[in-house]
Amino acid sequence: MLFSHGELLEKLVPKQVKILTPLKYSNFTTLPLQHAFIYSFKNLEFNMLNSRLKYTIHLRLRQYNNAQKARLYWSHVSKVIEENPTQYDIAISYAQGVPTFYVAEKIKAKKKISWVNITYRLDQREAEYQKQFYDQYNKIIAVSDVTKEVFLETFPYYSKKINVIYDINDPNFIKRMANIGKKFQDDFDGIRILTIGRLAYQKGYDIALEACKKLKGKGIKFKWYVLGKGPLLNEIELYIKENDLLDHFILLGVTDNPYSYIKNCDIYVQTSRFEGFGLAIAEARMLNRPVITTKFDAVFNQMKDGKNGLVVGMNGEEVCEGIIRLIQDRNLNESIVNYLKQEKKGNLEELDKIYQLIG
User: Span 171-342: which CATH code?
Assistant: First the structure.
C-alpha cells in the first residue's frame, strides 16, 4: 500500500509485489482544490472535501512539527479513509506517523509490526496520542540502537517488544547502479560536494547553505550539488538567489539512481538534525567517498570521526571548516579513502532478522 503513487522508485518494485489500488482519499488529494470542489458537488460527497479543508486550514494557522502534523492529519482524515477488508498474516507499517496509524486502525492482520526510521522525541500530548496506536502492534523495529534508545525515552513500556534491524545495504547492487546511472552534466574541474535528502527541516539545509556561503567567501573552487525535493524548495531557492550562490549550490531535483553522482563526487556532506540511521551516508561509504556529517543522535552507529569521515557540529561554520580540512589536508583525505576501502561493505545479514521476524 502506497500513500503516494507514480514516484520515481515505484518502477523498481519487483513484479511479484502487488501494489494495491490507491486509497480514495489519496486520489482525491491529487486533485487541484478547484477540481476537488467540482468533484464533491458533482457526486454530493463532501466528507473528503471537509477533511481536506480542515487539515489545510490548521496547517496554515501556525508551524507544526512532523508528529503534530501526523496527529492533525489523522484526526481530520481517518474517518474518510476506508478500511482494507483483507485479513493479512502480517502487516508492517514502514514509517512512523500516518502509516503507523493506518495499519493500526484500517488493517486486519494476525501480526502487526511497526518500523521506526528516525530518532524523534515526543512531548506528552503527542506521546499519549501515539500510544493508542503502538499498543496495537506485536513488534516495533528501530533502525539503529540510538533510534531504539530515543524511542524508549518516550515509550519505556515497549522495551519488551522493540528490536533493532538496521537499514539493509547491498554493496553489489549499489556498485552496479553507480556504473550505469546519470553523472554530473557540467565540465566543472573543481571540488564537487554532494548532499542527498528531502528538502525539509530534518535535513538541515539551512546549515548547508550557511556553510556554502562561507566556502564561497574563502575563495574555495567548488560546486555543491543537491539531490532531493520537498517543502523548503522555494525557501532554499530564495536564499541561493539572495546570497549569489546560483553557481555554487546546485539543485538537481530527484533521480531514481543517485549512486553515479555519489561515485563521482569528491566529498559527501550530510547536515541532518536527526536521522534514524543515515542511509545516504552508508551508501557514500560503500562507494568510498569521504563523508562530512553533523553530529546527529545516531551518527556514531556508522561513523568513526577521523577514520571514515569527519563528524562536526550542527552549524555552518564547523561544516565549512570540515570541508576545507578535507580539501587542504591531502594526507587526511587519502587516509579516509583508504580506510573506507578496507571497511566492511553492506549488511545483508540483517535480512536474516527480517526472516525471523516474519517467520
Answer: 3.40.50.2000
